[in-house]
What we know:
Structural class: alpha/beta
Strand order of the largest sheet: 3-2-1-4-5
Strand content: 5-15%
Distance between the termini: 59 Å
CATH topology: Rossmann fold
Low-confidence stretches: none
Number of strands: 7
Bound molecules: iron/sulfur cluster, zinc ion
Mean pLDDT: 91
CATH architecture: 3-Layer(aba) Sandwich
Largest sheet: 5 strands, parallel
CATH class: Alpha Beta
Number of helices: 11
Amino acid sequence: MMENKKQKFLNKFEKKVLSTIKDYGLIKKKDKVLVAVSGGKDSTTILYLLKKFGYKVSALHLNLGLGDYSEKCLINLKKMCEEWKVKLHVLDMKKEFGMGMCSIRCKVQQKLKASNCMVCGIVKKWLLNREARKLKVDKIVTGHNLDDEAQTVIMNFLQGNLMLGANSGPQTGSIRDEKFVPRIKPLYFVSEDDIRKYSKMKNFPVVYEPCPCTISSLRIKTRTFMNSKDENIKLRIVKNFLKMIPKLREHLYKEKLVYCKICREPSRNEVCKKCSLLNLKI
Ligand code: SF4
Ligand SMILES: [Zn+2]
């Protein structure tokens, strides 16, 4: 009886992820996709599922150099990718920038008021896009889930700028450029609780503790508030926001995309966000 209930949950979960992929046309059978894997439950779950669904999948891990935490994540990822026969690419922040993410953000924060996640997010996105292009994949897959996305909508609203979310949704859409690899989020409608349950049922050897650098007071406050809300409210928030996205993107399309004059990566400004941060004489 218990087994039956467990199997039902697993099937329902997988069906929901597959429906998001199909309904939003996220991946075509011929597409090569690169999953950005952190070693946590979300990205591991989507890597496992895309492989199971039969897509052409490989994985990329950015080793942020966060001590034991990063080491544990990498050991687990190597084990899983070997078992699932998925090619794992690893990029080391220390090799790329001469220092780990903690040092990068400390240097940036000495000059600028920026949260850890903001600095990390900008640098990671830049690296991911560059690597995905080098690897000639069609899409980058991230493990963002319903809770992350609902929190982001609320945070953008609290900051008075819903435009910040114009490029979100299950698929990035406002940027079209040969140097830009589209990003997709097949777990967009799946709650964090369900992902944790799925990952535990599957016994994935993942790190469940949060990243030791997550210190964004607005994110933490929003998460605490949103955790008291049930899944339907989070779904309503993201679904209503999705209806607004086409309007927001109309505005974004008017902005011309250029190549950063320092790194030549696609950017909305003369100097991209990553170069503006790192140019603070790190
Ligand atoms: S939680 Fe924040 S600091 Fe940690 S890996 Fe994610 S973006 Fe980077
Ligand atoms: Zn740049």
